[in-house]
């Protein structure tokens, strides 16, 4: 029904020329089209053009007003059409020009169900395309109580099945409870009102830049993760430690996540619903599995670093594999049964959109994905802080016997830990207010290149069991290896000393 109303409104706007032809010698006419109220104003060829002001009176009628400021107490909104707009219309229409201003009180909602001031849309039509004005079209609303809402003047070009509002070409001014929209073109206009916590769309340039960074970073991550997996499964001949095996599971989850993400948009463009639901489910599974392996990495580091004992839990690797891979699968199966995987649109502030395959229900996304990661982040960030504290403490203890580590190596240590524990995903929490755009860029760079950072960590820290000497205590960062010198004695070491040597040999950070 709303689509039929929208089509009839657009058709009526296109037929204004026929109404102008019937006006004869009159230069002003009131126009009613259902619930749409408007006014037509002619600018004859023989008259010099000038700026025209229209006011919407208390009786819900449009009228020509001489002065916007003088009429402020009599009308609640005004529209001012500049002289430049009339001159452009005359050039295109062989010397004659007209302008129509209409009030649409019940236009259909957009995809985001945006809130519009007074639920009113104003359309301005001159029978031709008028744009790039230096002397703007001004819409003025007086005595507006906006509360704590964020207001913005936006426009829509009238295309599509639903309004697609954009800020492009319009400036918003607010002073003394008066809203003024200064726009450089003619079309449908509205004042959108967002809650203080609402997020506006990204600009097209930001979306393109972030997309390029993501594709480059994910491509590099896939390559280096693939190299690490190749080295582990095909080239490694020595027995690997539990730490390395757990890390390889994280590599597998991240490799699958990058692969499905890079192929998601192309599958969405194919408009194949079955393929879209499949890729969305696999990508969701790999993302939840990645979160799970972040938590398992932190738990494993806790056992090694804080408890400082050899991990002898029965079937430890099997239990971690079940914990890392099984729960995400159950979640994805439930969401798949509920039919919540579908096409979604990512909109920009100029009305453009990018389509991908993901969860269509925002509540499921926030509860399952955001909620789960908050729990994982709280645990991994705690382990990260404790680990950094331990490393700094060991560096102070071994200052006389170990070489001072360079700042570059310390930086790679921190990056390796952040990548291994998934701490960098926490930048998504800062995507609000003034930090929103910078946090998106930091989040995209760090997480797109996460596989590359993990490969560096794997390459520097991976050693077969038994490679370390009994007197070497090795950190998993691969960049900090303080050595404890054990005093040699001709007599047999005590049992207590033997236990210390054994711990130093078998414990890996």
Give keywords.
Chondroitinase Ac, Chain A, domain 3, GPS, G protein-coupled receptor activity, Rhopdopsin 7-helix transmembrane proteins, disordered C terminus, alpha+beta, 2 domains, 15 strands
Provide mean pLDDT, rounded.
78
How many distinct domains? 2
Report the total helices: 12
Task: Note poorly predicted spans.
Answer: 463-509
**Mind telling me which CATH architecture of the largest domain this is?**
Up-down Bundle
Oligomer: single chain
Task: State the total count of DSSP E strands.
Answer: 15
What is the string of SSEs from the N terminus onward? Answer: HHEEEEEHEEEEEEEEHHHHEEHHHHH
- CATH topology of the largest domain, which one? Rhopdopsin 7-helix transmembrane proteins
Helix content: 40-55%
Cα radius of gyration in angstroms:
33 Å
CATH class of the largest domain: Mainly Alpha
Short description:
This protein has 509 residues and is α+β, with helices and mostly antiparallel strands.
Notes on the protein architecture:
The protein is α+β, with helices and mostly antiparallel strands. The protein has two domains: 2-194, Chondroitinase Ac, Chain A, domain 3 (Sandwich), CATH 2.60.220.50; 204-506, Rhodopsin 7-helix transmembrane proteins (Rhopdopsin 7-helix transmembrane proteins, Up-down Bundle). Helices cover 46% and strands 18% of the residues. It is built from twelve helices and 15 strands. The protein has helices at 2-14, 16-21, 83-92, 204-235, 242-269, 273-306, 316-337, 362-397, 407-421, 436-448, 450-461, 495-506; strands at 28-33, 36-43, 52-57, 62-65, 75-81, 97-104, 115-116, 121-125, 137-141, 150-156, 170-175, 178-183, 188-194, 341-347, 353-359. The strands form three sheets. Strands 1, 2, 6, 7, 8, 10 and 13 form a seven-stranded antiparallel β-sheet that branches. Strands 4-3-5-9-12-11 form a six-stranded antiparallel β-sheet. α5 (242-269) packs antiparallel against α6 (273-306). The radius of gyration is 33 Å and the shape is elongated. The relative contact order is 0.08. Keywords: Disulfide bond, Membrane, Transmembrane, Transmembrane helix. Residues 210-462 form the G-protein coupled receptors family 2 profile domain. Residues 470-509 are annotated as: Disordered.
């Amino acid at each position: 029904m709303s689509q039929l109303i929208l089509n009839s409104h657009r058709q009526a706007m296109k037929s204004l020329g026929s109404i102008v032809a019937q006006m004869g010698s009159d230069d002003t006419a009131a126009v009613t089209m259902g619930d749409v109220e408007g006014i037509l104003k002619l600018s004859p060829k023989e008259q010099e053009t000038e700026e025209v002001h229209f006011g919407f009176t208390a009786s819900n009628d449009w009228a020509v007003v001489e002065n916007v400021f003088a009429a402020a107490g009599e009308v609640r909104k005004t529209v001012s059409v500049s002289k430049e707009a009339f001159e452009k219309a005359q050039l295109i229409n062989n010397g004659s020009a007209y302008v129509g201003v209409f009030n649409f009180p019940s236009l259909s909602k957009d995809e985001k169900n945006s809130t519009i001031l007074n639920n009113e849309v104003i359309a301005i039509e001159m029978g031709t395309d008028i744009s790039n004005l230096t002397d703007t079209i001004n819409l003025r609303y007086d005595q507006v109580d906006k509360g704590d809402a964020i207001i913005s003047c936006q426009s829509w070009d009238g295309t599509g099945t639903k309004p697609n509002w954009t800020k492009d070409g319009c400036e918003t001014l607010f002073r003394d409870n008066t809203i003024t929209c200064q726009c450089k073109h003619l079309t449908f206009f509205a004042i959108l009102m967002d809650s203080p916590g609402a997020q506006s769309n990204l600009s097209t340039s930001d979306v393109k830049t972030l997309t390029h960074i993501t594709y480059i970073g994910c491509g590099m991550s896939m390559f280096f993760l693939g190299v690490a997996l190749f080295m582990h499964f095909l080239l490694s001949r020595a027995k690997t430690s539990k730490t390395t095996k757990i890390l390889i599971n994280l590599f597998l989850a991240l490799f699958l996540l990058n692969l499905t993400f890079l192929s998601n948009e192309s599958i969405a463009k194919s408009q194949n619903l079955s393929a879209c639901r499949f890729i969305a489910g696999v990508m969701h599974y790999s993302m939840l599995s990645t979160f799970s392996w972040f938590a398992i990495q932190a738990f494993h580091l806790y056992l090694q670093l804080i408890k400082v004992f050899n991990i002898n839990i029965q079937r430890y690797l099997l239990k971690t594999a079940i914990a890392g891979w099984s729960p995400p699968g159950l979640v994805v199966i439930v969401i798949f049964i509920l039919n919540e995987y579908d096409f979604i649109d990512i909109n920009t502030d100029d009305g453009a959109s990018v389509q991908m395959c993901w969860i269509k229900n925002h509540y499921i996304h926030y509860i399952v994905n955001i909620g789960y990661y908050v729990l994982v982040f709280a645990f991994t960030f705690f382990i990260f802080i404790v680990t950094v504290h331990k490393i700094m403490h060991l560096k102070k203890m071994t200052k006389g016997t170990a070489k001072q580590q360079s700042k570059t190596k310390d930086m790679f240590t921190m990056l390796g830990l952040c990548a291994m524990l998934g701490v960098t995903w926490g930048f998504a929490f800062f995507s609000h207010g003034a930090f929103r755009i910078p946090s998106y860029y930091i989040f995209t760079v760090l997480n797109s290149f996460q596989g590359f950072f993990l490969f560096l960590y794997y390459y520097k820290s991976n050693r077969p069991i038994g490679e370390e000497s009994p007197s070497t205590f090795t950190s998993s960062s691969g960049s900090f290896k303080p050595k404890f010198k054990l005093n040699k004695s001709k007599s047999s070491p005590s049992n207590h000393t033997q236990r210390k040597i054994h711990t130093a040999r078998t414990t890996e950070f």
